[in-house]
Write a structure and sequence with these properties.
Blueprint lengths: L3 E4 L2 E3 L5 E7 L9 E6 L6 E6 L5 E3 L7 E6 L4 E6 L8 E7 L10 E5 L2
Parallel strand pairs: 2-10
Antiparallel strand pairs: 1-3, 3-8, 4-5, 4-9, 5-6, 7-8, 9-10
Length: 114
């Protein structure tokens, strides 16, 4: 069974940057569109960014211009570069296919606070 392992989260001040990574134990990323999702306390999980097999990207309005998704199919890894972070970006961040087909990983906590 494919496992997803997210990493790179942490505590950052408003305006700061973080780079998240998601490694898959199997070769799922070479065949599917993949995305980054997040879930804030008391809210539903939402899709933030998506990248297709050919590299075409899509972003939610809330992160457009601040976040960049990329993928390395050879390494079965997808990245999320986050810049100009805001307190409202605080959440647990996950990666998965789009739509999600794989069991969710544990996520990585991002906290934006001064």
């Amino acid at each position: 069974q494919v496992q997803l392992v997210e990493s790179g989260g942490g505590l950052v001040q408003p305006g700061g940057s973080l780079r998240l990574s998601c490694a898959a134990s199997g070769s799922i990323f070479g065949f599917n569109a993949v995305g980054w999702y997040r879930q804030a306390p008391g809210k539903q999980r939402e899709l933030l960014a998506r990248i297709g097999v050919g590299g075409i990207t899509w972003y939610a309005d809330s992160v457009k211009g601040r976040f960049t998704i990329s993928r390395d199919n050879a390494k079965n890894t997808v990245y999320l570069q986050m810049q100009r972070l805001k307190p409202e970006d605080t959440a647990v961040y996950y990666c998965n296919d789009v739509p999600p087909l794989t069991s969710w990983g544990q996520g990585t906590q991002v906290t934006v606070s001064s």
